[in-house]
């Protein structure tokens, strides 16, 4: 499925993505993932994605912020 981010980037994901889903770059993974926030504040994995323009580290050149969350 083709999608566009709120920042105007185009991406691809196998399966469905919904408005409000978030694209994350997680340590240890070589591809971005789509996550969906669930009612209790944790996240559910939607799937791995291709997002044009962030596949080679462009989105996190100096990432210093660490966010901890529950992935279910």
UniProtKB/TrEMBL annotation:
Pfam families: Het-6_barrel (PF26639). It comes from the Eukaryota. This is Heterokaryon incompatibility protein. It comes from Colletotrichum musicola.
């Amino acid at each position: 499925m083709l999608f566009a981010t709120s920042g105007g980037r185009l991406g691809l994901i196998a399966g469905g993505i919904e408005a409000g889903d978030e694209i994350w770059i997680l340590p240890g993974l070589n591809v971005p993932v789509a996550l969906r926030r669930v009612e209790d504040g944790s996240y559910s994995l939607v799937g791995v994605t291709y997002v044009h323009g962030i596949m080679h580290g462009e989105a996190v050149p100096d990432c210093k912020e660490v966010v901890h969350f529950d992935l279910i």
